[in-house]
Amino acid sequence: MADLVLRQAESEGSWNMYAARTEVFAEGTSPRGAVSLTRGPGIGGSPEEIANGAECWTVFLRGSPRIVLPRLCTPWYYSRWSLARGVDGELDGVPFRLSGRSALRPSRRAVVVEGAGIDVRIIQRAFSPVLIEQDEQVGLWRSTGWELLEASDLAVMAACLFEWTGAMHFIQTPVIRQL
Questions:
Q1: What angle do CA 18, 76, 158 make, to 5 degrees?
Q2: Are the C-beta atoms of 144 and 2 separated by less than 8 Å?
Q3: H or E segment to which residue 59 belongs
Q4: CA distance 126 to 80
Q5: Longest dimension (CA), the chain
Q6: Tell me: the pLDDT tens digits for 126-161?
């Protein structure tokens, strides 16, 4: 049974479209409480970010805004573009960076949340992605969802962002993606 259960509040068609106004796009339950995602117009940065639909993503945990990513692009293809370049955000006012790396070697593939005192990584181990916080495994992804062992608030929110942005792309082998 999965510990983290996520559901999109919007239909699949609008999920992949630019969020023209701020509204709730996803909700879920976790061992750390209710989690939700709002998306809205982002802060324009580079011309590429504007063209790819930069949005402001806010992750709420137990009703309070915890993570703000002001320049994350629209989900799936464009959010992957953002993550490959790295996205700066804030966790309770502390700056951090969310990024994804893809490579042929499994040891080089990862989705990383890092900053001052922040170190959460999602990497591939054996046949399944795992969630690592401060060099300790705290979660395991199964086909039914995330099983979170003793995950902190940050680890839960990182798992949510992993799912909502389609970041499994970075963990899978690039050879499979080309088939």
A1: 105
A2: yes
A3: strand 54-61
A4: 23
A5: 43
A6: 888 999 999 999 999 888 889 998 889 999 999 999
| Entry field: residues in the chain | 179
Phi and psi at residue 76, to the nearest 5°:
70, -105
Cα-trace Rg, the chain? 15
CA distance 168 to 129: 8
**Residue 141, number of CB atoms within 10 A of its CB:** 21
Spatial distance between the Cα atoms of 33 and 22, rounded to a whole number of angstroms? 22
Alpha carbon 123 to chain centroid, angstroms: 13
End-to-end CA distance of the chain: 31
Is there a contact between 157 and 66 (Cβ–Cβ < 8 Å)?
Answer: yes
d(CA 83, CA 70): 13
Distance CA 92, CA 13 (A): 31
Pick from 52, 53, 58, 65: which is nearest to 39 by CA?
A: 58
Instruction: Report the C-alpha gap between 158 and 152 in whole angstroms.
Output: 10
The DSSP bridge pattern shows strands 87-91 and 54-61 to be: unpaired
Could you tell me the pTM of the whole model?
0.90
